[in-house]
Model the fold of this input.
Amino acid sequence: MPQFIIIAQDYKDSEALNRRLAARPVHLERMRVEKAKGVFIMGGAKLNEQGNMYGSMLIVDLPDKTSVQNWIAADPYITDNVWETVEITLFRIADV
Done:
């Protein structure tokens, strides 16, 4: 299956970080399940100069962009209004 890189930006309002922190345990548990299924390959939070999370980067293994869009739509960071924008790009992990 092809891989995709997902770059997400959080909302920038004053409660954005609080929403992220509230949704984070459920999001991380979902990533553990998706990793066990072979869908989630790797990822993590983007950090600003103060070390605060403000976005995410994920690499997933799904059949097509529509599948990625549907997969993202079910994530707590979408349903709980953490991610404002999401960019999906076809990606290949280097075989090194």
Notes: The mean pLDDT is 97.
